[in-house]
Design a protein that fits this description.
5-stranded parallel beta sheet; ABC_transporter-like_CS; Rossmann fold; alpha/beta; binds adenosine-5'-triphosphate; single chain; ATP hydrolysis activity; ABC transporter; about 210 residues
Length: about 210
Amino acid sequence: MQLQLQQLLPVYFDEAPRHTSEVWRRDLSFSKGEYVKIVAPSGSGKTSLMHFLYGLRNEYSGNIVYNNQNLRNYSAEDIAGYRKDHVSIVFQNMRLFPEQTVFENLELKRQLNPFHPVEKIAEMAQRLGIGNKLSSKSRICSYGEQQRVAIIRALMQPFDFLLLDEPFSHLDEVNSQNAMQLMLEEAKLRNAAIIFADLERIDYFPYTRLFHL
Ligand SMILES: Nc1ncnc2c1ncn2[C@@H]1O[C@H](COP(=O)(O)OP(=O)(O)OP(=O)(O)O)[C@@H](O)[C@H]1O
């Protein structure tokens, strides 16, 4: 299982300033089991990159190739299958259903392609300190609580690659470390890779490769 970036560049970026990037306009290949840290100052295209890799947007030159298949050639059905089985994401802006409860947000995701039994939802919520929020509508949860829900939601499905777009922006150090530990355990269970994009280096992500965007 390989995810390849071939000379990738957002179409809305100027070419000139990008020569310093270790990601844009490069040929890179990520494999299952790798922990990849991408340090990305604000505005360097972190969210763009994550959305491209998730198959949400394709305003880029170059190619993204998953297991020798170019994402550009995927049908809508192929993209749905790619997201269901192979790649999961924690969005920077969470994207929960505001009128659904925390439990419903998680269970909706779980039912699409169950990797864990339903009991795991409460177990993970307890572990991240939001066990008492399961029956609250997600819109009334704090940003930090919503971020933990978004993290657990990403772990409800199978994946080979877990994409993290500033997943701890609303969390304190202790909560971030707990959530990181859970994601590492879940990645290990699947022998999956983690691609973690953030503004800065953080100590508690044991990356095996480091890139500056
Ligand atoms: N669809 C688009 N069309 C034109 N410009 C865009 C588009 N999407 C993003 N940009 C621009 O590209 C740059 C990078 O945006 P992006 O959201 O990827 O950055 P980021 O590194 O995630 O930033 P932040 O850390 O501040 O969230 C920004 O200047 C943004 O305005």
